[in-house]
Amino acid sequence: MEEQKITDKVQTKITCPNCGKQADFDMWLSVNTQTHPELKQAVRDRSAFVFTCPGCGSQTPVDYGFLYQDPEEGVMIQYVTDDAQAEKLHEMLTDPDSKRLLNIRNAGYLIRIVRSANELADKLAIFDAQLDDRIVEVYKLSALATIRKERPEFDPVDSEFVFYTDEKGHHRLQMVNHGEPFGSIAVNMDAYHAMENDFIGLLTDMQHDDPLINRQSAIELMKILGDR
Ligand SMILES: [Zn+2]
Predict the structure, then answer these.
(1) Which is it for strands 9-15 and 50-52: parallel, antiparallel or unpaired?
(2) Distance 199 CA to ligand 1 centre (A)
């Protein structure tokens, strides 16, 4: 059987920041969890994005954008680090006449654009937990209001909540303030489901929503709820 050659990774040279030795490093342009099942975990624990120096053994995280595609779960996440590229991609993925968008939707994919490694980890954990990222964002917005009352130093702009599931299977939010860890809080699933109920009839299919789901989209969703 002839195997189709797909360029899913490129080799690049990295200079070790510890000892200065230069070595090869595989950069994944596209991660398909069906053709490379071993990457499913390596993307989640970020071990796929760590350069291990063959000279001194020191490890350096390498952060770059790529396409994550899970055909079994029907999830496609494009991680984009560049603003202009993200804007262009967003335009294309919200254009109802776009052939690429049509193909993605016809294949049953949910598509999201993320802008940081934290956002990528957040989306993956949310979809792994079979939750709706739009409702999780609404939940985070209410968590933000609560946290701000208790700990006013939590910046309402330069902060984020990263969803994760702990080893006991409990859903939690890791808080990040000015890029620094700020502790974590449990996700109250009863409150989550109550919010989900509030939005019944107001949300489109997850597959047909805007690919950018973040704090801003939660603010817009709350406005829609208020106008109901
Ligand atoms: Zn080294």
Answers:
(1) unpaired
(2) 52
